[in-house]
Design a protein that fits this description.
The protein is α/β, with parallel strands linked by helices and 502 residues long. It is built from 17 helices and 17 strands. The chain is 46% helix and 17% strand. Helix 4 crosses helix 5 (168-176), helix 9 packs across helix 12 (378-385) and helix 10 (307-320) packs across helix 15 (441-452). The structure holds 6-O-phosphono-beta-D-fructofuranose (F6P). Residues 18, 39-41, 103, 162, 187-188, 337-338, 399 line the site of 6-O-phosphono-beta-D-fructofuranose.
Length: 502
């Protein structure tokens, strides 16, 4: 459905690597069908189309996407409630950008995953991937956006998303000057200055100075924002914070670093969770798993999610508290991800072997302690979240972790959330969860035991408090705050310009 717009209404441009829809060609009819994309970013931002006039620019990732672009001659198209445009990156360049620089190099730095005595080695091919992949694809995104917004009479607010597009503010500012507001949001953690030593100085400088071409930068937490300010101060000789924890001055521009904790689309999640198709999946899952108490986890197969230590903790639980054997199962819904990157393939192997080890050690004719279900299915995840007794969310570090919020919202068994102190969600939910260190396998096992043996009243009270927190601040509020700040920034700029002219 397309919306009527006025010259005053802002044009919101979202730019992200993965778009809100992916397209598939139906082999028989040759027609293109759209499927909602996966992942936290898309799920969160997918909710805003009805509220704002949105143009979402993403990369065409599969054959169907490329076909869709061709069919519409590269022009943005309305899909549901927003306009979508896609760049078609050259395959080799895209591979270098996605598989060498964004994941793993930047992702691993920001989640502090590198085992530095062994990896990474930044070689000539990494440099080639930087120039011919990362820089080039960022430029291609910028060109596509510039093309659409350069002559706009309306206020233009551009929101680049995440670590794939760090160079976008630089390329956009170069061509569009100060007439647009540029406001990236980073979905993943921003570590302190030390972690950034891994990135060679030239890459680091290009990345930081580009981000400082923004008007403000959104982070999941205040800690991430503070770390960003510190990183700029530490590595850029001309960046100063003058004692501020959340803004930085660079080249006569003051850039704020703001915490906007992301959330979920509360109404949509509730609606989907209670849909009859989801109920059917829930009944099927329960009958196939059996009448057990459930420790659930739902994650992408991703080293930072710390899935192997979660399994080790479950083994430690069954060893230390044998009363749970035959009564408690761990159900892991795992979504394959980034399988082109070696670290991810190896990680899947480690997960499967640890699960196999536990099953070999503790199963009997009736009882299989660990059940792993592989594959992407959002309804199945929401179905399983309704019947956990314990939800294990133990990332080494995580921008926010939306599973923690989804689980808290839809669970119907007054389940207990066992949450890593390094997930961004801890700042909002921490008071009502069992907080763990993701490295502490023993502590995690004991937290699961505590959750399983917690008195009913306490469980119910914690679950109700978590649900209320999530219901209070949904994703629409999250995005509206960013738009309001961008519009206020634009007004301030105009007032300053008018004063300067007078
Ligand atoms: O912010 C992290 C993120 O971009 C999330 O949207 C999502 O969970 C994940 O990474 C998706 O990664 P990819 O697009 O590489 O599958």
């Amino acid at each position: 459905m397309s919306r009527e717009t006025t010259t005053k209404e802002p044009l919101i441009v979202i730019a992200s690597n993965r778009g809100p829809y992916s397209f598939k060609v139906n082999e028989e009819t040759k027609e293109l069908t759209a499927t909602r994309g996966a992942g936290g970013l898309v799920t969160a931002l997918g909710a805003i189309g009805g509220t704002y006039d949105v143009l979402w620019v993403a990369a065409a990732l599969g054959k169907g996407d490329v076909e869709w672009v061709r069919e519409h001659k590269g022009q943005p198209q309305v899909v549901d409630d927003m306009r979508i445009a896609m760049i078609v990156p050259e395959r080799r360049r895209y591979g270098l950008y996605y598989n060498t620089i964004a994941n793993p190099l930047l992702w691993f730095i920001q989640h502090e995953l590198w085992d530095t005595p062994r990896q990474p080695s930044i070689t000539a091919s990494t440099w080639e991937a930087w120039r011919e992949g990362y820089v080039a694809i960022n430029r291609q995104f910028a060109d596509a956006i510039i093309d659409v917004v350069k002559d706009s009479e309306r206020p233009v607010l551009i929101f680049p998303q995440d670590y794939h597009l760090y160079l976008l503010p630089h390329f956009l500012r170069e061509k569009l000057g100060d007439k647009v507001q540029i406001q990236p949001f980073l979905h993943i953690p921003w570590p302190g200055p030390d972690a950034w030593r891994i990135l060679p100085e030239q890459m680091r400088t290009e990345l930081l100075t580009s981000l400082l071409m923004s008007n403000r930068i959104g982070f999941q937490t205040k800690t991430d924002a503070f770390n960003f300010v510190q990183t700029c101060r530490f590595y850029l000789p001309n960046a100063h914070s003058y004692g501020s924890r959340d803004s930085i001055e660079f080249q006569r521009r003051t850039v704020s670093a703001v915490g906007y904790p992301i959330s979920i689309d509360v109404e949509r999640v509730e609606e989907l969770a209670s849909a009859s198709s989801t109920r059917l999946i829930r009944e099927h899952l329960i009958s196939s798993i059996g009448d057990y108490r459930i420790i659930l986890r739902v994650d992408r197969i991703e080293p930072s999610k710390n899935i192997v230590r979660g399994l080790e903790a479950f083994r430690a639980l069954l060893q230390a508290h044998p009363e749970h054997r035959g009564k408690v199962k761990m159900l892991a819904l795992l979504v394959p991800s980034r399988m082109e990157v070696e670290e991810y393939r190896t990680y899947l192997g480690r997960i499967m072997s640890e699960a196999g080890r536990i099953n070999a050690e503790f199963s009997d004719a009736f009882y299989e302690p660990v059940r792993i279900i592989l594959g992407q299915n959002y309804e199945r995840a929401l179905a399983a979240m309704q019947f956990f007794d314990v939800l294990l969310v133990n990332p080494l570090t995580d921008g926010m972790n939306l599973v923690a919020k989804e689980g808290a919202l839809v669970n119907q068994r007054d389940g207990v959330l066992v949450l890593s102190e390094f997930a961004g969600a801890i700042y909002e939910l921490g008071e009502h969860v069992l907080k763990i260190s993701p490295f502490d396998v023993y502590g995690t096992a004991e937290a699961m035991h505590q959750a399983l043996t917690m008195p009913y009243e306490e469980r119910a009270q914690r679950a109700a408090a978590l649900r209320e927190i999530v219901q209070r601040a949904g994703v629409k509020e999250w995005f509206s705050r960013q738009v309001d700040d961008a519009l206020a920034g634009m007004d301030r700029n105009r007032t300053q310009e008018t004063k300067a002219e007078a």
